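Protein in question reproduced for absentees:

***
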Amino acid sequence: MDEGDFTKARSILFPRNLLVGHGVLGQISEVCRDFGLTGTALLVTGPKTKTVASDIVSTSLTDIGFDVQTVITGEATQDNLSKVEEEARAAKASFLIGIGGGSKIDLAKMAAKNLGVEFIAVPTSASHDGIASGRASIKNKDGPLSLEARVPLGVVADTSIIVQAPYRLLASGCADVISNSTAVRDWEYARKLRGEEFSRSAYSLSVYTAETIIDNASFIKPNLEESVWVAIRPIIISGISMAVAGSSRPTSGSEHMFSHAMDILSPGKALHGEQCGVGSIMMMYLHGGDWVRIRDALAKIGAPTSAKELGVNKEQIIEALVTAHKVRSRFTILGQLGLTYEAAERLATITEVI
């Protein structure tokens, strides 16, 4: 290579402050002040999370002189995104705070990007690993779209609030992170066979988070705040691995394609992370890895490991496996042609998913 031929350059954005632990939501006014934020804050929340968390945030910010406006919204749809953006413009919001589960944070981070303002993530549950990522899942008439969004300026994760959410949500978030085990194998597979761009740092972060959840699976239980403490940091760091990679590659592979296929075939039956966990069992078998370890970790946490536990039938699992390779143009262990019906049935049977 001649001198001057190297032209690679990329900006990597991270959250500047991750505040995690018991009672930390009371410190959000200090976080906003430390960031130098001023003006009007728009809180993006839902009807349930308003009482649980956003009222605390509103009082905390109002007490130190912020103008605080609130928009109560629903799922992360294109219509609700437009609503949030309209409210932000009307309020002349200088920054947004997403308060709630994945949908409210996705709406806030996407609106923040479109409006060119900052945003802070305040999770009240941890059902997937997108809390600190620069990606948002927004549904339109054709289904969910994974879009580039604003990386949060900071994350304030209060374990005393998250533990109040249904345990199923935390188990789903853990399953989503466990599924990194197969996402990184798909990524390395694509690097070897297709020369796909690869980040060893992002790969290592993703593996670390999956292994941390798997190693601590026995300690993650319902109604135990310490379980949230154990799980929430890997869940957040998993999202950061996407920022390092500049894509969702370290956390999304064939198991996510299976999950997206399930969303199309049986919408609303199971949570995203739950489907990814089950998908990871099967994809780890295809990779020749220890799929039993994945299954056992999910079972210890209380996440689904079978079609029955997902609330779907055998045919839906098989159809999702057969069609998963078409969901997005990402090279994985499923290849370009995907699985035959017979291969899919055999895979699901061997791994005891059906």
